[in-house]
Amino acid sequence: MKSSNCFPYLFLSLLLSLLGANAYAHDIAVENADGVTIYYNYINDGAELGVTNKDDDKTEIGIGVLTPSYSGTVNIPETVTYMDKTIRVTSIGESAFSGCSITSVTIPNSVTSIGNFAFSHCTNLTSLSIPDGVTSIGDGSFSYCMGLTSLSIPNSVTSIGVGAFYLCTSLTSIIVDSDNTCYDSRDNCNALIETATNTLLTGCQKTTIPNTVTSIGDRAFLGCKGLGSLTIPNSVTSIGENAFVSCLELTSVTIPNSMTSIGDNAFYQCEVLTSVISQMEYPCAINYSCFEYGAFENATLYVPQGTISKYNSTDYWYYFDNIVEGEPTGIEKASLSQMKIEAGDGFINVSGIADGQQIAIYQTDGRQVATASAHNGTASVATGINKGSTAIVKIGSRAVKVVMQ
Fold first, then answer.
1. Distance between CA atoms of 190 and 341, rounded to whole angstroms?
2. CA trace torsion 350, 299, 389, 279 (10° rounding)
3. Cα–Cα distance for residue pair 357/375, rounded to 1 Å
4. N or C, which end of the chain has less CB nearby within 10 Å?
């Protein structure tokens, strides 16, 4: 069953409704040295200026996207002279550049704050330099900057808002200045980490999760392109909600034994996921929405030796149709491709397996109900399980769910 890809957009819509993405008519409009008109509002009782959007009629053309006022290259000056008065530019206002087709922007050192959704939906913006002097980056400020490939955070930044870099799907480089006391990108990991909590806030396709990170934040890898396989280190104890949602190229993930919590929708819409390697000897419960429906059907869940019964009795790991004890091997995949299981009239018949192979049948509560040994490549087991009920067939290290016919 193929799911819709609208989830991240619904989330941003909700975030905007909560925050109120307002647009304000500009107070003055002044050409910069390049002849580009930039719009400003007076702030701090007229002592300073904040860059804004022209948007006199407050037209909204999309989620948090106002009528574009800028395009191409924009160089924001440090000061503006208007009516014989020179005023410093100290902020980039809410939604100032949202939806604009800018390709590059120069932010002066005088700017100390970047407002909510200031650059959201600037899909042509490929690189960004945030000057040392900026202390706060607002909610959703660079969300949907899908062309942005690199991100550099200076040592002056002390506050980064919710969803500041959501759906920057092309990011390959994330660097935080080593002198920043609030955030870091330790061990050249290509990630944004909140230092005090050891929480990974934003990752990208080149991220290597350090073994000092203890949690992966909500939506940390939302929509990340090019993320093919992922190994989460044993230091991580929690994965936030929607952490890897819509990572459409993710095929394999390894979950460490240290994990105690995996949030709702953590791997939702990871539609080509084929291998989930769980090292948890005591699996934490998950929500049924943790994985894409197709993953439960098509992916193989690999679990530690002797733990299949635990996974088959823990929410909602038992949704996986294919559970195997041990690490994946090419030999195992080749041999399993020849196996056939039929379930009907109280019996389960397994063919295409080696002579002497042990077969065990379990109910979904983990209780073993029957065993058998293969002869001439076939085993037949009387189960006593009613028609329409689910049985778990364990063949060696592999467990497969079947519905009794």
1. 46
2. 90
3. 8
4. N
The total of other beta-carbon atoms located within 10 Å of residue 23's CB is 23
For the chain, give the percent of residues with pLDDT over 70: 88
Rg (CA), the chain: 27
Q: State how far the Cα of 30 lies from the Cα of 96, in Å rounded to an integer.
A: 15
Mind listing the pLDDT tens digit for each residue in 195-204? 999 999 999 9
Long-range contacts of 334-339 (CB under 8 A, 24+ apart): 336/398, 339/395
Q: By the 8 A CB rule, do 317 and 351 touch?
A: no
Q: Which structure tokens are listed for 57?
A: 């009629």
Helix ranges, 96-162 (H): none
Residue 169: pLDDT over 60: yes
Question: What pLDDT score does 397 carry?
Answer: 66
Residue 292 vs residues 163, 232, 245, 345: alpha-carbon distances, Å: 23, 19, 9, 32
Question: Tokens 């999309």 label which residue?
Answer: 62
- Residue 177 corresponds to which tokens in the numbers above? 């200045």
